[in-house]
Write a structure and sequence with these properties.
This protein has helices at 2-20, 39-59, 86-100, 117-129, 144-154, 161-178, and strands spanning 26-27, 68-69, 107-110, 137-140. The protein is mainly alpha-helical.
Length: 203
């Protein structure tokens, strides 16, 4: 409880400072995928964290129309033996957002949370195709899930720059399509199916 309360307040203070200086705050209350929990637990915890976050944003009088949310997708813990379809992840994610995120927020830019490049893209596509009402733009703000294939192709060598740029275009186009629910699969990138999960990841 105390951790969620304090994190919500810190994010709200950050958002207030941004808006006082003419910047758009990207509010990032990430729930990490460490553990063996199933999808319903991830959804419940995500809902709790987002509820604390938006209570704090309201308490700090944040102009929600001038913010972006950067959350995790709802997926089972990385150590969970049960595997879920993208459609199940999408329904859990959209349900959690509908229960907690005001319609005034214009956009939600997802983290990949250690998913492989391809899994993150497929889940984003499923989220945008979920039949539940979604009043926000739903897109991506990936780090590792946009860069892994690029770095693998580049290898720090000048002669690989063109190949690395081509890999970036593959991932950018795939995620651009997923952001409007039009991704057909098979992005064909160098590290597309490799897990990007890092246990006990710290920033």
């Amino acid at each position: 409880y105390q951790a969620m309360l304090e994190n919500g307040n810190v994010l709200a203070r950050y958002a207030m400072i941004c808006q006082q200086n003419g910047l758009v705050p990207i509010v990032e209350p990430e729930v990490l995928p460490d553990g063996e929990h199933e999808l319903d637990v991830a959804q419940k915890v995500t809902e709790e964290v987002l509820a604390f976050t938006y209570k704090a944003l309201a308490d700090h009088h944040i102009f929600l129309e001038g913010t972006l949310l950067k959350p995790n997708m709802c997926t089972a813990g990385h150590g969970c033996e049960k595997k879920y379809a993208a459609e199940e992840n999408a329904k859990a994610t959209v349900t959690a957002l509908r229960r907690t995120v005001p319609a005034a927020v214009p956009g939600i830019t997802f983290l990949a949370g250690g998913q492989s490049e391809e899994d993150a893209t497929i889940n984003l596509n499923a989220i945008n195709n979920c039949l539940l009402l979604k009043p926000w733009a739903l897109t991506f703000s990936y780090g590792r899930a946009l860069q892994a294939s690029v770095l693998k192709a580049w290898q720090g060598k000048n002669e690989n720059i063109k190949a690395a740029q081509e890999q970036l275009m593959v991932r950018a186009k795939a995620n651009g399509a997923a952001a409007v629910g039009k991704y057909g699969g098979s992005g064909g990138s160098a590290a597309g199916s490799e897990s990007l999960y890092v246990k006990d990841h710290a920033y």
